[in-house]
């Protein structure tokens, strides 16, 4: 409901921005650093508006935090509450428990992200925000992959340590740091060399709304997600659980 409301409000505001010369002039008066940091330079065009208001920062952050909170709770949270003991008392392997928790994480993340995608896809024609379906779908896929990656990292850290707070804190910081590494590379020359290390850059820093999905960047995100998952599952199998 939150993502549906957020997407609807952003679409409802677009007619007041579309072709508004005064608004475009206002944005151009902002410092160049601010324009680059939040992708404000082209906010009156359909793709530029979606980039600035949804895909550049706020929606990936909200969805990322949702996945991080969920991932930290699925195993480490259960262990802390003492309910994991009841689950593992059944004749099932730890590998299966981890895999099904991860599938639950991915499924819930995809559902929440899809809610936003449906609102944007169905509502854009109503407010005359003309964006190619393929471009919008590409951006949504990239954001979903980014969200699943950080959710998987949170789940893996929780599985490896059994500490929900540590998993949540480390992954949330990594999510925000990933954004700043990607965004600040436009302003700080030396950061352009480390920018490819940022998952945020691999997903959204390459601007999939304008340039489409890149198989290379998608491959990097998928590979990192599975690597985190495999490491977390391996550690979960061998750790002495605090139950």
- Which percent range describes the beta-strand content? under 5%
**What is the H/E order?**
HHHHHHHHHHHH
Individual helix count: 12
Could you give the distance between the termini? 36 Å
Please give the domain count.
Answer: 1
How many beta-strand segments? 0
Helix fraction, binned, reads over 70%
What can be said about this structure in brief?
With 243 residues, the protein is mainly α. 76% of the residues lie in helices and 0% in strands.
What does this structure look like?
The protein has one domain (60-238). The chain is built from 12 helices and no strands. The protein has helices spanning 2-17, 21-29, 32-37, 46-55, 58-81, 84-88, 94-123, 133-161, 164-184, 199-205, 208-211, 215-238. The mean pLDDT is 90.
Which features does this protein show?
243 residues, mainly alpha
SSE blueprint and pairings:
Elements: H1 2-17, H2 21-29, H3 32-37, H4 46-55, H5 58-81, H6 84-88, H7 94-123, H8 133-161, H9 164-184, H10 199-205, H11 208-211, H12 215-238
Helix pairs in contact: 1-4, 1-7, 5-7, 5-8, 5-9, 7-8, 7-12, 8-9, 8-10, 8-12, 9-10
